[in-house]
Write a structure and sequence with these properties.
Pfam families: adh_short (PF00106). The structure is a single chain. With 246 residues, the protein is of the alpha/beta class. The protein is built from seven helices and ten strands. It is globular. The strands form two sheets. It has an eight-stranded mixed sheet, with helices on both faces. Strands 5-7 form a two-stranded parallel ribbon. The chain has a single domain, classed as NAD(P)-binding Rossmann-like Domain (Rossmann fold), CATH 3.40.50.720.
Length: 246
């Protein structure tokens, strides 16, 4: 195997994650497609392989400690390092992320969304950190959302006022806090950590009718942050090359 960069993309069997893997693969990165079901991961990897991309599918439910350890073992045995981790996997409330629901949110909704969107991202990142430290230029990209922005939500005429679903928004705000803290913790190393705001994209979460952005456009921020150079941003919240207000 030639000395390719290696990227793990969680939740990569469809949507933004799959397109992120495709675009990275087109830039000669070996991509590991992670999905909760092995069959989904293998099928997605086969599509990319047929396009000439170096792709492998693995089973990875990020909330499952055993799955996380198996992923670490696979990457260590197969590649010996990890250059790029894109924490793309995430969920929204089962009904919708539109509307406003705060104190009326069921406890199980808070617990499920924070477990997937926040806690498990931290656990997986920590599990993989020794392999990322072996990279000459480790990059960690956390998939956030404009809905995480406290600044934008607090505007009197906020453009996202109709999307105040506390469980989802707060889980992504917490993820942004992780980005800031972890980037600072890793200062002085070759690793950079950033949050990506993909935009309002035609996906299962964003909706296919009203969302203005294609998945190709939505993946671009993650891809760019995964490939930034030594002088690139660190500990920032980015959408298409521009800073987003925290």
């Amino acid at each position: 195997m030639k000395n390719q960069k290696v990227a793990l993309i969680t939740g990569a069997n469809r949507g933004i994650g799959f397109e992120t893997a495709r675009q990275l693969g087109q830039k000669d990165v070996a991509v590991i497609i992670a999905a909760r079901q092995l069959s989904d991961a293998v099928e997605a990897a086969a599509i990319l392989t047929a396009e000439g991309i170096t792709a492998t599918g693995i089973e990875l439910d990020i909330t499952n400690a055993s799955d996380r350890q198996k992923a670490v073992s696979f990457i260590e045995e197969t590649y010996g390092k990890l250059d790029i981790l894109i924490n793309n996997a995430g969920i929204a409330p089962k009904e919708t992320i539109a509307g406003s629901k705060s104190v009326a949110t069921p406890p199980e909704e808070f617990e499920e969304l924070f477990n997937v969107n926040f806690f498990s991202v931290i656990y997986l990142t920590n599990d993989l950190l020794p392999l990322i430290k072996k990279s000459e230029a480790g990059r960690i990209v956390n998939l956030s959302s404009i809905l995480a922005s406290l600044t934008v939500h607090s505007l009197p005429d906020s453009p996202i006022a109709t999307w105040r679903k506390l469980s989802y928004n707060a889980s992504k705000t917490a993820l942004n806090a992780f980005t800031v803290h972890f980037a600072d913790e890793l200062k002085g190393t070759a690793i950079k950590v950033n949050s990506a705001s993909p935009g309002w994209v035609k996906t299962n979460i964003g909706g296919f009718d009203e969302a203005p952005m294609t998945v190709e456009e939505g993946a671009k921020t993650s891809v760019d942050l995964a490939l930034i150079g030594e002088d690139g941003p660190n500990g920032r919240f980015i959408h298409l090359g521009e800073d987003v207000a925290w």
